[in-house]
Write a structure and sequence with these properties.
The longest helix is centred in the C-terminal third of the chain and has 25 residues. The mean pLDDT is 85. Helix 7 packs antiparallel against helix 8. By secondary structure, the protein is mainly alpha-helical. The radius of gyration is 17 Å and the shape is globular. It is 77% helix and 0% strand. The protein has one domain. It starts with a helix and ends with a helix.
């Protein structure tokens, strides 16, 4: 039987590859998987947030010019404050499973993308961003909704991943700050090994996989990711 440490290592490696390609993965896949392994929510955040941030920093730092200015403004004034408040509330007071709801939303967005329908026709973007922030603060699953939002904008693959990674980096940063303020941030020696995995797999994935994916295939894979995320979240909610 595999030890818990080896299982965590495998989960971190797998989710790091996914995040290296799409900008999300470490938190949205890693959180439910580590909770299933038996880790607590705060312990899971302490392991995954630094890994997620390092990969994202690599992804957007060389393409800062591609970051959407309007989305960045909403990120600063709407998303980050709501993530901080709801993370504190979730850790201290609220235990809630939003996997089913998030999963259904992702599949709905995936279907709209498939038929080339912009889902923001159905909901105001600021309302969507607010809901995404609240869900991320409570469950760490907001990255899945972020993929849905950015994919609907039909950016090219570089701009898509740059915006997703910049937002996702900001999510993790405000979460770490919130944990630190509430004296919930801690460090274990094993975490250093996990931190090495993320950047290493990013470099390999970038050179061996990402650069070889053309635009049309990337859009198909992103949409497929929405269906996979949605399905897993729905299954895990029961």
């Amino acid at each position: 039987m595999l030890s818990q440490e080896l299982i965590i290592f495998i989960i971190v490696a797998f989710t790091s590859i996914i995040q290296s390609l799409f900008g999300v993965g470490v938190l949205v896949f890693g959180t439910p998987l580590l909770l299933i392994v038996g880790l607590g929510f705060v312990e899971t955040l302490n392991i995954l947030l630094p890994i997620s941030m390092i990969i994202n920093l690599f992804q957007f730092s060389s393409n800062i010019i591609s970051i959407d200015k309007k989305l960045s403004k909403d990120l600063l004034f709407i998303v980050l404050p709501l993530i901080s408040v709801t993370l504190f509330m979730g850790v201290e007071f609220i235990k809630i499973n939003l996997g089913l709801s998030v999963g259904l939303v992702l599949i709905f967005i995936g279907l709209l993308n498939f038929f080339e329908i912009t889902f923001l026709k159905f909901i105001n973007e600021k309302i969507y961003l607010s809901l995404m922030a609240i869900i991320h603060g409570l469950t760490n699953l907001g990255g899945a909704l972020l993929v849905g939002l950015i994919s609907s904008k039909k950016f090219d693959k570089i701009k898509t991943r740059t915006n997703i990674s910049f937002f996702y980096f900001s999510f993790a940063l405000i979460q770490l700050i919130t944990l630190w303020i509430n004296d919930l941030l801690f460090w274990e020696i094993e975490n250093m090994l996990y931190l090495i995995i993320g950047p290493t797999l990013f470099v390999l994935s970038e050179k061996l996989i990402f650069v070889k994916i053309n635009e049309s295939i990337f859009l198909i894979l992103t949409n497929f990711l929405l269906f996979i995320l949605g399905g897993l979240l729905i299954i895990n909610s029961f």
